[in-house]
Please model this.
Amino acid sequence: MTASAEASGMSGGDRLLVAEPVLGDEEATALARVIRSNWVTMGDQVRAFEQAFAALHQVEDAVAVNSCTSGLHLALMALNIGEGDEIIVPSLSFVATASSVIYTGARPVLTDIESLDTPLLSIAAAEAMCSPRTRAVIVMHYAGAVVDAHAWREFANRRGLHLIEDSAHAVGRARGPIFGDIAIFSFYGNKNMTTAEGGMLVASDQGLLERVRRARAHGMTSTTAERLHARAATYDVPSLGYNYRMSELNAALGLVQLRKLDAWNAQRRSLVQDYHRVLQSRRNDLLLPLVGHLPSSHHILPVLLPAGLDRLRIMSQLHERRIQTTFHYPPIHLLTWFRQRYPDLSLPVTEEFSRRELTLPLHPKLTPQQVGFVTEALLDVLAQETCVETQSPWTT
Model:
């Protein structure tokens, strides 16, 4: 173990991870309480979590589901998106953003980002991609940085489009007010707060939320808990539905995690500032996207390597120093399934960003000393690298 590793507080078997959930005795107690109750699906915990989440985000109500992906699907279904429709979607996102559109029979129109410095869906590119079949646009708050709410609201209103927020990266007060017709959140294990698996939908239109609420549970008119308390003998299914319900165990975790979210997001912001202070002062050829000018939950810490460096080699050398890194994301339009269906699509800014982006560790368990260890390791590795012509991993 190196002196730098010792100074960072790392032990011999430790590895600094890109993301790590914070789970402890409070979460264990909450889970045990649900188990002792003997009611584990769609009960009081789910409803309490929905209400607490809605209150934190200053909306009237919310609907909990088993994943952000199912939430995106339900949002599109509730907005009557279907066969023949087109939905503007960023290619710089996790594949679920586009897959959820395909589930409805609609076509995702994969679109470029604004710039290397602001890797968020471009309004100008979206304008160019619109057609008479365009029904909605999904904006994704990459790295937790929230897109320009006023500009996108104006764009959607002018075009007569539904505005959907993929808010998987942006949760809590730090992200600012909800501005889309509907917003969908993720509680996967690497997110700012976790329920292990899970998601949440919020909307100002209560009729829209009610359609989502019914569709998440097979389209049934009542739940098991409601039938128990009301002594109702049966239910009806007036519309198509799915099994997208959240369990009581997931919701119990969520209630505990939600209480800690503001503090964790503040820690993330402080750690990001530590990263930026060192990297900006030491390497003027490192681009740090989304610095300071947008509200953010700071979900991930992206840096853009100088053009021509071998990213995989840099990641390997950091791995040898027990630092995990990754990249967010391979462009959706260059993944095999999508490339076969969009063979001629070129999105140059997204492709350049994705070739050079490196994601560094960022989570509330990380200490300022460990941030120092990561930055010094990255700077040391970069000092030994020279620019080479490397083939994109998405080029055939």
Notes: Residues 248-282 form the longest helix (35 residues). The chain has a mean pLDDT of 93. Strands lie at 62-65, 86-90, 107-111, 134-140, 162-166, 182-186, 199-202, 301-304, 357-360.
